Amino acid sequence: MHPALSVIFFTVVSGAGFGLYSLTAILQLFRLGPAMDRSELLTALITAFVLIVAGLISSTGHLANPKNAWRSFMRVKTSWLSREAVLAVIFFPFGFLYLLGVYLYGAHVPAFFGLMGLIGIVLGFMTVFATGMIYACLKTMRQWNTPLVPANYLLMGLTLGALFHLAIEAYYGANLQFITGVAGTALVMTGVMKGIYYYWIIKTSGPSINTATTFTRATVRLLDVGHTAGTFLTEEFGYQVEAGRLLMLKALVFGFGFILPLILIVAAAASQGAGFLLATLAVLSSLAGKGIERWLFFAEARHVVNLYHGAQHT
Amino acid sequence: MRLGLVIDLDTCVGCHACAVACKQWNTSGTTGPLTDYRPYGADPSGVWFNRIRHYEVGEYPNSKTINFPMSCMHCEDADCVTVCPTGASYKRKEDGVVLIDQTKCMGCNYCSWACPYGARELDRESGTMKKCTLCIDRIYDETLAEIDRQPACVITCPAHARFFGDFDDQNSEVSRLVRERDGMQLMPELGYNPTNRYLPPRINTPIPTEDVRRDSLAGKVKEWVNKAVAR
Ligand code: SF4
Ligand code: SF4
């Protein structure tokens, strides 16, 4: 698949925003970790909203005909893309009411605003799940057609959210012990999940050139594709990365995405004074790693239409 | 009704006439124009509903060249329709034809990701998705003679490799052909249940080719001269 930058930016950044929102609200509503004051909560929630909105705006960048984008709310019954759009929009009133509660009452929000916050958490998770399902529901790409994909989207969002949260707590000089535990656990779980995914997609399965052409009892070889230049199909689906580069990029995913941030946040929790700087570096490193991860997610997916262009398997 | 095409892989000669006729008819049809990019440049490209690819099946010398025309299969369980968030893609209840409403499409490419057969192409000029309409504006045109109410590709095929009809009608030519010659679906394991069927090549004895190259002395000289003279 051709990796579109707007979609990569959208899935990483919005996912991080929803993760940050959910984590902050959970920690505050269930009184977990060190107490946060009003300005700390506001910073976290507003950062989350900025991330979500920036991502959503960028997602319209890959539409060839954006003037019809409003119609994407029309098919909630069947389309995961439609569901994601609707969920993302419904999230806002609830998220904003919770934000308003925090603005008015600080850390001790009344029950009504707390309830809004809870609904916001659920909607945030559902939105990220729907984003994952957009890809996981496609039977044409076996690298996407797995429950590992929505699980990965949820965990990635949560991990980035935890790192953002940690950086904000560090900025306010809070005790980082608890949040470092949360972010560290999230990093390890997400890294393991990604490893399982990479292992899982090594195996070839599904349609082959034989079932694609009905000639299941003979060898089939492409003689000519019948077109003289690239077509929409070859540009959209023909994208390929060489094996050596793939391996290097995967190493970068783990290095920047998981290992380096883990070291940085542990150092941040231990250090006096440099906590915020180290935590910010952890966020940046993880964003870079997850950007590469998302790029690979697209670049490695092989659409079955490639069978007709010479691939023997996908 | 379940309208669709039957394509005879035994008789298709790979001349691309169906693709050209399709482009000609549909570029001025309901979803047209079908944009051409850089038509006079080094690598002209464009939107086509129908593409023909060529394969070698089996091992030489017992291999066979198969020409493989593909357009939308008008699938029974069409995921391209299910995934479309705008409702621009739809499958007509009355005859099973899968169409795109050009006024609703937002060009997100999602349906093209869902189609296993590469039947959908984005028109970068209009920003909307385009695909085979089974010549919907032709097969229902009462002003045309009965015999002309067929898709352009079917009418034009010089090898008579294409047939159009109703698969729900057991007595139609397409149903009969599928029954008698084992009409096949492409990638049935994906579960799209494509309506279009492909007829496998008939089994016939291979034509011996060992003696083709054995030539007379005069023939050999002639061949050498032909090769040596620069044209
Ligand atoms: S061939 Fe592709 S575009 Fe046509 S109905 Fe099937 S899935 Fe949809
Ligand atoms: S490109 Fe158009 S027809 Fe295809 S899924 Fe998107 S809105 Fe629907």
From TrEMBL, chain A:
Q: What is this protein called?
A: DMSO reductase
Q: Which InterPro entries match?
A: DmsC
- What GO MF annotations does this protein's record show? dimethyl sulfoxide reductase activity
Under Pfam families, the record lists:
DmsC
Query: One Gene Ontology cellular component annotation?
Result: plasma membrane
* One BP term from GO: anaerobic electron transport chain
Q: Name the species this protein comes from.
A: Acidihalobacter yilgarnensis
Q: Keywords assigned by UniProt?
A: Membrane, Transmembrane, Transmembrane helix
Look up the domain of life of the source. Bacteria
Q: Which residues cross the membrane?
A: 7-30, 42-64, 85-105, 111-138, 150-172, 178-200, 247-268, 274-292
TrEMBL record, chain B:
Q: Which residues form a coiled coil?
A: none
* One function term, GO molecular function aspect: 4 iron, 4 sulfur cluster binding
Instruction: Return the Pfam families for the record.
Output: Fer4_11, Fer4_2
InterPro entries in the record:
4Fe4S_Fe-S-bd, 4Fe4S_Fe_S_CS, ET_IronSulfur_Cluster-Binding
SUPFAM superfamilies referenced in this protein's UniProt entry, alphabetically: 4Fe-4S ferredoxins
Span of domain 4Fe-4S ferredoxin-type: 3-33, 62-94, 96-125
Q: Which keywords fit this entry according to its UniProt record?
A: 4Fe-4S, Iron, Iron-sulfur, Metal-binding
Q: This protein's superkingdom? A: Bacteria
Protein's UniProt name: Ferredoxin
